[in-house]
Amino acid sequence: MRADLTLMALAHESNRYLLTRLIAKATRKLHRPKTRLQDTMNDAFERVSCSTAAAASRAADVLIHSEDRAA
Q1: How many CB atoms lie within 10 A of CB 50?
Q2: Roughly what angle, to the nearest 10 degrees, separates helices 2-12 and 37-70?
Q3: Above 60 in pLDDT, residue 1?
Q4: Per the structure, how many domains does the chain have?
Q5: Which of 11, 34, 41, 50 has the most crowded Cβ, counting Cβ within 10 A?
Q6: Are 49 and 5 in contact (CB under 8 A)?
Q7: Is 60 exceeded by the pLDDT of residue 48?
Q8: How many CB atoms are closer than 10 A to CB 31?
Q9: Where are the alpha helices (DSSP H) in the chain?
């Protein structure tokens, strides 16, 4: 399961070192007492994968609208 999450995150962040730092920071911020650290890491991977996909689609929308205005 974690391998799938990692591959989804790597599709958006190709630098493995930066991805590791990002997941570590997110895990520290998201972790709650009395929960498993592994579950928190999985949550961080899911959030990174989803947020980067949403950010990429927003960037594409902005690019499309700017091209429409230029024409």
Answers
A1: 13
A2: 30
A3: yes
A4: 1
A5: 41
A6: yes
A7: yes
A8: 15
A9: 2-12, 16-30, 37-70
